[in-house]
Amino acid sequence: VSKIFSAGLDITEMSGKSNEHYAAFWRAVQEMWLKLYGSNMVTIAAINGSSPAGGCLMALCCDYRIMADNPKFAIGLNETQLGIVAPFWFKDTMINTIGNRATELSLQLGQMYPAPEALKFGLVDKLVPEDKVQSAAAAAMSQWLSVPDHARQLTKSMMRKPAIDRLVKQREADINNFVSFISKDSIQKSLQIYMDRLKQKK
Ligand SMILES: CC/C=C\C/C=C\C/C=C\C=C\CC(=O)SCCNC(=O)CCNC(=O)[C@H](O)C(C)(C)COP(=O)(O)OP(=O)(O)OC[C@H]1O[C@@H](n2cnc3c(N)ncnc32)[C@H](O)[C@@H]1OP(=O)(O)O
User: Is 40 annotated in the active site?
Assistant: First the structure.
């Protein structure tokens, strides 16, 4: 979709459903992260629009991020703005990209960064004109693929393995945490208010 890289997780999957539904949904989200963050392939994010929360997470899972140079497009982990909390593995992924202090600021405030600020913060690696995002991503891919694969893969794994192992170890506990958190009346109410606001903004 033009102007949106990803709207993040589907909020309708996290509201008004059964605990079994929430558990299956969260397991699938974990699986997505484990596959993408743990992939030994080269992954380049061509960010052609806004990228809140889960969308930002997907971009952060990639090895390199190229974003369209348009201040109307914003990226960030904005969970607190929805009244929810980015789980520890979202937080770890952000820390591994921009460091601890910048992550703390970002997460507590639920900040969405317009493209130029995202570049300053290190959330993205490069800005290019909107119509050059795909070609710039292809060029970056060629550069990354020119590095000997075994050396690049072992290096990637060395950098990411501690975060991945942490989720693998705590996977079931993380699902239980998510289910008990998201099914609280107060959290369901916050999500509903956020969705109503999204619809009113039209
Ligand atoms: C203690 C801790 C323990 C455990 C952890 C607990 C909790 C962690 C849980 C969850 C983590 C979640 C991460 C997420 O990804 S949450 C989702 C965050 N996403 C957003 O905030 C995006 C909101 N959307 C927008 O900002 C905009 O819609 C936009 C920039 C993506 C697009 O803007 P547009 O102006 O182009 O389009 P709209 O008119 O706003 O939207 C069109 C349409 O789509 C609906 N919609 C938008 N985003 C979502 C979404 N993420 N899920 C579901 N639906 C969405 C929007 O309501 C409109 O619907 P209608 O056409 O009105 O029906």
Answer: no
> The sheet that has 44-47: what strands, in order across it?
44-47, 64-68, 126-128
The angle, 0 to 180 degrees and rounded to 10, between the axes of the packed helices 88-98 and 19-37 is: 20
pLDDT category at 1 given cuts 50, 70, 90 is low
Ligand 1 mutation target, pool 10, 11, 12, most atoms within 8 A of CB = 11
Q: Would the pTM of this model clear 0.80, i.e. be above it?
A: yes
Instruction: Report the b/e string of 65-92 with b at 16+ CB within 10 A.
Output: bbbbbbeebbbbbbbebbbbebbebbbb
Average pLDDT, the chain: 97
Residue type, 89: W
Residue (of 56, 92, 79) closest to 187 by Cα position: 79
Per the annotation, the verdict on 130 as an active-site residue is no
The single residue of 57, 78, 107, 191 carrying the catalytic annotation is: 78
* Active site annotation includes 8: no
For residue range 115-147, what is the model confidence (pLDDT) as tens digits? 999 999 999 999 999 999 999 999 999 999 999
For 123-200, strand residue ranges (E) read 126-128
Give the three-class secondary structure for 68: strand
Q: Give the count of beta carbons closer than 10 Å to the beta carbon of residue 123.
A: 26
Cα 177 to averaged position of ligand 1 atoms, centre (Å): 21
Q: Decide if 104 is catalytic.
A: no
Number of H helices, E strands in the chain: 9, 7
